[in-house]
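Recap quiz, item 2
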Amino acid sequence: EAGVVQSPRYKIIEKKQPVAFWCNPISGHNTLYWYLQNLGQGPELLIRYENEEAVDDSQLPKDRFSAERLKGVDSTLKIQPAELGDSAVYLCASGKTGAPYEQYFGPGTRLTVT
Amino acid sequence: KQEVTQIPAALSVPEGENLVLNCSFTDSAIYNLQWFRQDPGKGLTSLLLIQSSQREQTSGRLNASLDKSSGRSTLYIAASQPGDSATYLCAVEVQGAQKLVFGQGTRLTINP
């Protein structure tokens, strides 16, 4: 079975520019997660989707971050405008609804803001 | 608020040694605990998942234990190999939130 696909793998942008990341989850996985991982730290949840509904976006900085999951499959995470502190790895994960809530991670997108 | 701590932050051992990585969490109301491996520039690979009702899980040379009452988990790696070099992350699934809270990881280096 194909894993979680993310693109691009790397992105370098100047501050104040917009950027978008794309995620395609494992087929049949209703739940999709976006995590932020700073260097030397564990990932932190930004948003969780159940199908097309964002059920937990409490950690998403809504002034500059937005996300969507149209049709309950692929998802896009956007930052506008990007700041220097947004440099990090953005990870997407997917899983099936219900126990044991196992999550499968994509390779991530490494963002560098200059 | 659930907090997860991993000690040590980095560990370097010679090939062939058995080793233990530690993970502690502050709130015992968890649904499960997972150990992940992360290679440089790569995503996370799930190694072991322990349900809250279980005490341990084994996969090959890996054994993970869970003591919910004390808020601790250990990952035991037997007969370490250079290919085991990676960052190991512990994460707990917060009960009722379907959300993983991660530790900061232990960077493991196995020297040939």
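Chain A touches chain B through 24 residues (CB under 8 Å).
Chain A has a mean pLDDT of 93.
End of item.
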